[in-house]
Amino acid sequence: MSDPSERPSESMPGPDNNGLKPLSNADDYSLPNTNNNNDLSRIMSRAGIALSNGFPLDDDEDDEGVDEDYVAVDQDDANEFPYWLRRPPTHHRTKLDELHPFVQLLSVSNVEDCAEVENAFPENERCSRDKFVYRLSRCPELSLGLFTLPIIGEGQPKPRATLVGHIIATRTSEPLVTDRAMCLPDNWRNERWSFQHGHAVGHEEGGSTIAIHSLAVLPDHQGKQVGSTLLKSYIHRIREAQIADRIAIIAHDHLIPFYESFGFVSHGASKCQFGGGGWVDLVLELGNEQ
Length: 290
Description:
Elements (H helix, E strand, L loop, with lengths): L34 H12 L4 E2 L2 E2 L18 H4 L22 E5 L5 H8 L10 H10 L5 E5 L13 E11 L22 E2 L2 E2 L8 E9 L8 H16 L4 E6 L4 H5 L4 E5 L10 E6 L5
Helix pairs in contact: 3-4
């Protein structure tokens, strides 16, 4: 809202002074002769508007034939407006922008792509190809990939999108990621539920915890905010879908601050011995806003 003290005073019409009634102190008041008034006079003159003491006068005789929707202003006049009102918004491009990224759900057709991304991990911590087939066949809606598709010229064939990073997950009834949740059931192609020693293993439909088994980014694209962009999108999707109470993951100590920045809470050393152990349990309760 503009300052009322900066608004011009309104003059009321009367019988004298060509339709304008002078103010009581008009005789003692005169507008300062500044460049701004000269500029205003120049602009109004080009627009065909007469001025009296710096204010426009009504001229009924000149109204005919004048396009009221258009006022011509020279480029010199436009240049007098503040620069920040005319310059386009500035966007600082990042390395992520250069990838022209997009995210979408994964399917069993992405198994080979996921296996390539998984090579970012030490060999003993990688998800096997068979596990990718199992997880992307049984619960593909819980996995998400970030792809890059380069800009192509007109007439060029559309290239195949490249998977840059992925999140692979299943459901579990446990509040934390366990070795049972990370298992590959032997009979998963024939049985909807799998049990070992009386406990469910692998993906548990209806489980209230989303167990992330892999968040990986191609080595060539690490350090470009791919992982953080992917995780942020994944959390938003799961939260909005309201399909689980929490998201759980296991990670090494140096990654704890990364996950804590997204709202995960450390629950100490994990009992999970996958890949030789040494993990920390991290949980994001979806009932809590960040």
